[in-house]
Each structure stands twice: as C-alpha cells, then as structure tokens.
Amino acid sequence: MTRHVPVHAEAVARLAADSRRVVDGTVGSGGHAERFRAAGAEVLAVDRDAEALARARAIVGDEGIRWLHGSFGDAVVLAEIDRFRPDFVLLDLGVSSEQLDTDARGFSFRPGAPLDMRMGAAGESAAELLNGIPESELARIFAKYGDERRARRLASEVCRRRARKAFATSDDLVNAIRAVLGPRAGPAIFARLFQAVRIAVNDELGELERALPALRESLQPGGTLAVISYHSGEDRIVKLHFKEWARACICPPAHPICTCRGRALGVIDPRKPVLPDGDEIAANPRARSAKLRVFRNDADA
Predict the structure, then answer these.
(1) Domain extent at residue 180
(2) Which residues does residue 268 pair with via DSSP β-bridges, in sequence order?
(3) CA-CA distances (angstroms) from residue 26 to 21, 93, 122, 159, 246?
(4) Is 195 within a domain?
C-alpha cells in the first residue's frame, strides 16, 4: 500500500522527537503514527473511522502501536488515553484524502456521490440531516460552519427542493447551491458548504470542545498537545483553549481577589500557528489551510 505523507509531517516529527508515549487521536492513514514509532515512541493510534484504522494498520503493522477504534472525544476513548499516560498528543482534524477520494463514503461533491459524510458508522447521514432538520437549523449550519452570507436563502431552497424530492446525492446539494449562488458557483464554494454539512453530521466542533481539556489533563508533566486544524471554527476553539490555559489568572476583570487556579497550566510554543510552506502546499494543495498549534504542559503539572 502507498505511504501517505500527512500535513505538517516534519514539524510534528520534530515536536515529538523526544516523546516516549504518543497518542495519535486521528490516525487516518498512519503517516504520523509511523514516524512516531520510527523515533522510538510507543503509540496509541485512535480513529473513529473503522476503514481508516484498518487501512493504517495494514500499512504500518502492529509493532509498537496499539490500535483503538473510537472518537477522540468519546468518554471511553478518553479514559484509555488517560491510562496510557502520554507525553505527546496529536489531533490532525478534518477529513482525510482517502475519505474525500472514495465517492462511496459520501464526502465528495463529485457527481452522483451519495450524501453520507459520516466518519463512523453511527448517527444520521448528510442526506438525513438535509432532509430532516428545520430550516432555521440548516441556515445556522451554512452560516456558522460555512461562512455563507446567503445562508437563509440557501436553507430555504434546500427545504423547497426536499419537499418535492428527498436529497440523496451530491447533485441535489450542488444544484441547490447553484440555484441560490448562481450557475458559476464552483468547487471552492461547494467545498466550503459540503464541509459545513460534514462538520454538523459529525459534531466535529462539539467533540473538539469536549475533548481538549481532557486531553491536556491526560498529558504527563511537560507533555505536548499539538492540533492541526483546517477550518476557522476548529482553529478558534483550539486558540481560545490554549490562551486560557497559558494565563496565570482567569478570574473576571472586576474580581477583587483571585480565586481561580492562580497559575498558568503551561505555555503556547510557538506563540503563533505553524503554517505549511510553499513546497508542502505545492505537493499537497489540501494543506494550504492547515494550522498547527502547540501547547506544552507545565513541567510541574
């Protein structure tokens, strides 16, 4: 099988160079996990996508790696991560190239692809979501996750069309988008709005909100949490959590006496997100929106 080169591969490998127990919370095709193992680390490889986990295991093998099927935000998985006592945790968020390129998985806007978008087997599909939720909720998804100014019009168009015929394939959503945004609406717009639906289907932002505090707490003193995000909503959540953890006092400004923890939990290092360079973007255009943020737990945590 082909070795997949993940986004920010070299940067992540450098960050984890001295780590001994590494959690790859979104293992995908195993590109990062393979590098962690090659550096001598014991790896706990997690993914909610059973197909991705099986593919990665076939490529990478079992030596030095423990494979765990589940979502990094699931309580059972978080308990396993805590017991593993990691000194490095990586989340490489979003959808994998293999998921996008496999039409049957329903992530693509290529003609005739099913509207599925589920990263796991459970839960409702994209088609079920588009056909079933209220117009106001559809508008919220398009606006919040897709940054769409005409979200209400698009939600109204989806509801009008689904009343005549249930949405089933990518063409149904593409045609609704074109009806509202114009016949020249192209791949960039489709990608943005399909991504918005995918985020809603998988509760990706909610999962991230729930998981980040638990993942930081699972880290050993001096351990590192690294997150690669591809969506502004994901990046905002990571940025805000890291900023709060790096503050010595989180009391309200008008609070006369500090009653919070009274110390920073660690540091953001580097202070700004790491962005892919031109060579990486040229080799993998999907890397262009990737932001890598890093938080290092206090050594006395």
Answers:
(1) 102-202
(2) 295
(3) 16, 7, 17, 34, 25
(4) yes
Q: Do 274 and 245 sit in the same domain of this protein?
A: yes
Backbone torsions φ then ψ of 262, nearest 5 degrees: 75, 15
Q: What tokens were used for 266?
A: 């660690």
**In this predicted model, what pLDDT tens digit does every residue of 268-298 receive, in sequence order?**
999 999 998 888 888 888 788 899 999 999 9
Task: Identify whether residues 140 and 229 lie together within a single domain.
Answer: no
Distance CA 126, CA 200 (A): 9
| CA separation for the pair 161, 10 (Å, rounded) | 47
pLDDT, one tens digit per residue, over 45-75 is 999 999 889 999 999 999 999 999 999 999 9
pTM of the entire structure?
A: 0.90
Phi, psi of 46 (to 5 degrees): -120, 140
Both 128 and 196 in a single domain? yes
Structure tokens at 217: 């707490």
- Please give the radius of gyration of the chain, using alpha carbons only, rounded to the nearest integer: 20
CATH code of the domain covering residue 133:
1.10.150.170
Q: How many CA atoms lie within 13 Å of 54's alpha carbon, on the beta-carbon side? A: 4
